[in-house]
Amino acid sequence: MKLLKRVPLPALRVFEAAGRTCSFVEAAKELDLSPSAVSHAIRKLEAAAGLTLFTRNTRHTSLTLEGAMLLDHVQRGFEEMSRGLAIATNEPAVPLRLHTAPTFASQWLVPRLASFLEDHPGIDLRISASTDYALFDNDDFDLDIVYGEPRPSPHEKTPLRIEELTPLCSPEVAKHLRTPQDLYSQFLIQSDGQSVQWRGWFAANGMQPPSNYGLAFDRSSMGIAAAAGGLGVVLESDLLAEQELASGRLVSPLRHVSNSVRYVGHYLVHPRRPRQPHAVSQFKQWMFKALSAQAI
């Protein structure tokens, strides 16, 4: 407590911005200060605390071990103060803004949202779905769930789960599927936006792919719905079709007599931060727990 009295509190705000961006210039822009003012505030904080918080050279600024430890606690403190002020003033909470691939949203996320909202009533969740990448530079989103390998970026990316691609169909259609060769007599439903399509599955099973398909969609969700409606056989992920498989609307008749394709289909992407906002951490913890339970 005695040390805290010596530390200029405005300098902590400057330190948080500089530590989060690892740039005095970016911190200056964010706080509407000059870079020299940011540098002066950091030196004043270091002198008061008796610590070296940054290593500096002409090309790069980075946190020292002590600086990283302090930043974690400072960010936690600012977050708690913000939450307290919001509660005291009845100010609406800052929403958690999630961007996601459309089929993941409709097939996996939305059916499970009730449990998240029940467990986290204080989090205001906003969801946007599209095939574009989220824009983090303008602070438009906090998290992005993307389909396929994310494009190169400085952001943190985490694979969600290994998915299994196998032929799926209604129980009625499954009566006509005993061996992989039986697929040649069926309508095969193609998802044009899928990373691994029918051609890849046939190759994995040492078979020639058919020359044409009965149906093709640009969204996996439509292919799953078509297969559940008995229109044909779709090559789809056990992650995206989990609801239909659990209800029995879809079955996987060839899973044990053929080679499935296993791959990482979805990734979670977000900006790198020493400490993530509370709502971001809570959502990530909930989602990975749900994904783990589904995989069992």
From TrEMBL:
PROSITE patterns linked to this entry: HTH_LYSR (PS50931)
Q: Ranges for the HTH lysR-type domain?
A: 7-64
- What keywords is this UniProt entry annotated with? DNA-binding, Transcription, Transcription regulation
The entry assigns this protein to a family as follows: Belongs to the LysR transcriptional regulatory family.
- PANTHER family, per the entry: HTH-TYPE TRANSCRIPTIONAL REGULATOR, HTH-TYPE TRANSCRIPTIONAL REGULATOR PERR
Q: Which protein are we looking at? A: LysR substrate-binding domain-containing protein
Q: Taxonomic classification, please?
A: Bacteria, Pseudomonadati, Pseudomonadota, Gammaproteobacteria, Pseudomonadales
